[in-house]
Design a protein that fits this description.
This protein is mainly alpha-helical and about 80 residues long. It contains four helices and no strands. Helix 1 packs antiparallel against helix 2. The longest helix is centred in the first third of the chain and has 20 residues.
Length: about 80
Amino acid sequence: MKEKIILENKKKYDEIFRESLTVKIKSLNELNSTNNKNWDSIGHMILITKLEKKFKISFKSNDIIKFSSYKDGLKILRKYKIKI
């Protein structure tokens, strides 16, 4: 059951990245704010807003600033007790 939740949350996370920043799934692990032209200030806030809504959380300002890569985002979500 726990593994199913983790897989579902990972799928949601990936989908939000693809929608928000227009990226292909194969490039997500290497994605960061400097190697994607769509990850500008507006793209960043769209991404953050969608994640907050989907996972029913509210990021602290510090975490919003630190959220600068796909991998960083996974770590930050875990801080909010999201199983991913």
